[in-house]
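Reminder to self: tokens first, then the designed residues, so the page reads top to bottom the way the pipeline ran.
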């Protein structure tokens, strides 16, 4: 199914993301919709690097817009005629730089894929976490029952207040009548006094009962607020943290908004009930009136609960991210970023009335050389319901930038010093809630962001974001890296798997994670008790740290090998020793694909052959990197790989993908139509292969010497086809 059609069929939560994506001027949704088939067939990635192709696609795009305009003329669609003309006029600015347009369209298509991946992940998680979801559903149902109970009690209280007012009116009428009948007989007066006393007693009991009911209502409300703020909201915040680093968690706020609004509505009604009691006391009061003694405390409690709820209801719905950035929470100076706040108490009368202001950091922490930044751009917006597809009360900031202050930051004389990518900064959002005599100052804050000044710091910055959000639930701990805790292996492996799951829709299995654990800790009986230090993750062996190695693999898979990875054709993370033990048990020509342990962003394959004595022998080719993969698809390398050895006829030693799948059966669906000498790739595959003996392995100084089985490795010098030299 076409990508656009798949997107249109997604559930509402994902179509909302799609609407938010296309709520930009760079590529109008109308153009994406009406030209969807043509857009998805073009090679935008190549056009982003090829001026000639980019210009051709630019011209064809304008022609297609003309065709659509003619169609709307025939259909007499005046509005669409106008829109198409405007879109074409806007695209004209790419006349001198069509490659930028190609890059822009490519970026939108990639973002669409991310939405589809997120939807697919959510579907997978739904199957993988049935029991957990059942528990969550049970908890939600219980909360819904409590909400329904609260609404019912408020309705009953409303009826009680009406009855109380009627009862007081009855007493007041009879009392006034009694006072006017001055000439009545003494006996009648005594009788009337008794009646009035009975009415006062009854009124007093009703007031006591009403106050007791209000107190119980506040008890129930307080219990619900504790559940909402200390459980549901905190769990959402933790899910948002994990989602920022790739976890397939649901971070939709619609349900929380519904609950927060319900409780806030009920508390405002309680305040009205208390106001009504004050009004009634102003008309009729007496000695030891319970309203006079109890109402102030109830009023104070109701206001405190309401303030607590309102303050907790202001959150950052979408964390700061650059429009075409690879990851959230990494911001670059002088580059625009976007962020969205949301107020979870949805009162229509507040639409466009609450102004949100943006600022950054507070007092400088005790960190030597700590930088400070000014927030530039549109720093003030009103919360409104127009910018959210679900109708939530949001302020969507899309054009903010950071500029470093010239004055030195940090604290003089402080010994704590952090690298630029270990500095954490927080963006604050302030507003004021004013309604029915209540004024409350609100503040929301982003998760800590890492601010960089050039793209070379991106990878290290993202490592910091991963580490913080994996381990810390104190979202304001900007001193975190001054004494960063270690990660347990269960935490660490989950985070690693999320990276692949988010990027490729296939996470890491237990065997792959075990290989990584072995790389980090050596052979252990129980890896769950092992811990990974921050320095081991992102500092040791710099610049080739563990994370640089891992991220290099992830980028390579995402860019060049995603389909092969998703189809489970790449074992990937497997040690050389494990690889040898797997292959030596298999028939000749069995091969597997694994990631290089020492070449950043490298993938290689090893196969089992037989020696002249009939013994199994495992051979490995030098890893392929993006230099090779950007020219020749990896499946074509595997398909056309050949060895030219001595006088023998050239042959491809790769016959069966481990464990026993015929190569063409495994990779056939990826092949181009042509094969053999007619393949458009064969002319590029020129490699000289040589045997590396045990004695000269170290002398060869191969960049992959640690990846090669000693005495068994084959080193391709330029690609996977050519002559083999004899052993030295």
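Designed residues (728 positions):
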């Amino acid at each position: 199914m076409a990508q656009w059609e798949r997107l249109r069929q997604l559930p509402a939560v994902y179509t909302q993301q799609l609407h938010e994506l296309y709520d930009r001027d760079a590529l109008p949704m109308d153009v994406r919709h009406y030209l969807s088939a043509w857009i998805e067939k073009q090679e935008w990635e190549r056009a982003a690097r090829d001026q000639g192709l980019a210009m051709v696609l630019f011209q064809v795009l304008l022609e297609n817009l003309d065709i659509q305009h003619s169609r709307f003329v025939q259909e007499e669609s005046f509005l669409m005629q106008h829109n198409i003309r405007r879109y074409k006029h806007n695209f004209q600015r790419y006349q001198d730089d069509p490659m930028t347009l190609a890059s822009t369209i490519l970026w939108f298509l990639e973002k669409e894929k991310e939405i589809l991946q997120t939807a697919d992940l959510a579907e997978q998680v739904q199957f993988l976490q049935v029991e957990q979801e059942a528990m969550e559903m049970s908890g939600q149902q219980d909360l819904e029952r409590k909400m329904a109970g609260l609404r019912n009690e408020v309705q009953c209280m409303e009826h009680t207040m009406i009855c109380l007012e009627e009862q007081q009116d009855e007493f007041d009428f009879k009392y006034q009548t009694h006072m006017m009948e001055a000439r009545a007989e003494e006996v009648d007066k005594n009788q009337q006094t008794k009646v009035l006393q009975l009415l006062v007693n009854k009124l007093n009991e009703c007031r006591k009962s009403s106050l007791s009911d209000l107190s119980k209502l506040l008890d129930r409300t307080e219990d619900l607020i504790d559940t909402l703020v200390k459980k549901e909201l905190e769990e959402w915040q933790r899910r948002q943290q994990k989602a920022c680093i790739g976890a397939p968690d649901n971070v939709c706020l619609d349900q929380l908004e519904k609950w927060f609004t319900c409780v806030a509505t009920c508390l405002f009604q309680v305040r009205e009930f208390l106001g009504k009691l004050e009004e009634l006391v102003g008309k009729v009061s007496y000695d030891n009136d319970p309203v006079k003694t109890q109402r102030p405390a109830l009023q104070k409690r109701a206001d405190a609960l309401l303030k607590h709820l309102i303050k907790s209801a202001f959150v950052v719905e979408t964390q700061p991210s650059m429009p075409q950035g690879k990851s959230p929470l990494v911001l670059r100076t002088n580059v625009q970023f976007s962020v969205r706040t949301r107020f979870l108490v949805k009162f229509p009368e507040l639409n466009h009335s609450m102004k949100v202001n943006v600022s950054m950091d507070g007092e400088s922490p005790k960190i030597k050389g700590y930088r400070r930044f000014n927030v530039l751009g549109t720093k003030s917006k009103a919360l409104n319901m127009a910018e959210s597809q679900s109708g939530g009360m949001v302020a969507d900031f899309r054009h903010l930038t950071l500029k470093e202050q010239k004055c030195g930051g940090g604290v003089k004389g402080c010994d704590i010093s952090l690298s630029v990518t270990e500095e954490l900064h927080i963006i604050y959002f302030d507003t004021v809630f004013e309604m029915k005599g209540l004024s409350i100052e609100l503040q929301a804050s982003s998760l800590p962001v890492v601010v960089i000044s050039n793209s070379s710091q991106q990878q290290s910055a993202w490592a910091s974001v991963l580490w913080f959000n994996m381990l810390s639930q104190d979202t304001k701990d900007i001193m975190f890296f001054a004494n960063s805790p270690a990660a347990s292996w269960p935490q660490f492996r989950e985070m690693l798997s999320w990276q692949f799951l988010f990027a490729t829709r296939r996470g890491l299995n237990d065997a792959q994670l075990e290989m990584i654990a072995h790389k980090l800790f050596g052979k252990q009986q129980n890896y769950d008790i092992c811990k990974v230090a921050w320095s081991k993750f992102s500092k040791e062996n710099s610049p080739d740290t563990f994370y640089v190695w891992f991220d290099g693999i992830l980028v390579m898979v995402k860019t060049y090998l995603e389909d092969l990875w998703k189809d489970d054709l790449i074992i990937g993370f497997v040690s050389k020793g494990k690889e040898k033990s797997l292959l030596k048990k298999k028939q000749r020509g069995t091969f597997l694909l694994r990631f290089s342990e020492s070449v950043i962003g490298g993938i290689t394959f090893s196969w089992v052959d037989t020696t002249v004595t009939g013994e199994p022998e495992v051979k490995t080719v030098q890893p392929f990197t993006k230099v090779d993969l950007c020219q020749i698809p990896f499946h074509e390398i595997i398909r056309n790989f050949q060895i030219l050895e001595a006088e023998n006829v050239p042959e491809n030693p790769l016959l069966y993908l481990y464990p026993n799948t015929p190569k063409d059966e495994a990779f056939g669906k990826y092949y181009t139509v042509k094969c053999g000498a007619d393949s458009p790739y064969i002319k590029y595959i020129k490699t000289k292969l040589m045997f590396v003996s045990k004695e000269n392995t170290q002398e060869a100084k191969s960049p992959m010497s640690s990846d090669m089985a000693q005495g068994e490795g084959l080193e391709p010098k330029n690609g996977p086809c050519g002559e083999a030299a004899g052993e030295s």
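The mean pLDDT is 84.
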